[in-house]
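Hey team,

Filing this mostly as a record. A colleague (T.K.) asked me to run one chain through the structure pipeline before their review meeting, and I want the input and output archived in the tracker in case anyone asks later how it was produced. No errors, nothing strange. Just documentation.

Input sequence:
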Amino acid sequence: MFLTNAGTVLGTDPLDRNFTGVRSYLRIGSGNKIREHFTISRGTPAESATEIGDYFRRNMGIGDVVTACEYLADEGLLGKAQTPVRLTRHSNIQVQELAFYYISLEPPPDDW
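Output structure:
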């Protein structure tokens, strides 16, 4: 079992330009907490899977996706960006919206 919050999108098409619409999967292990407005895509190659297992919890004591992404960003495997966002249109309160991203090192296809 895992927990999700509002605005979470799971199993969407990958953002990778190499994705061709093939069947792929998303597997989420137990005990993960997926925070609000977080998107996790399926694998890019055919029959592949994006897997979020118990690896981080078991080996590093990390129990949620954001902390796992922070770890991967520190290792240089993911990029990390923050931007200031107001809570409401008329709000004076500003928070940092956090995003993690992956950029493929492979060049895009010729027909892209």
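Quick notes for T.K.: The first helix runs from residue 55 to 60. The chain has two helices and eight strands.
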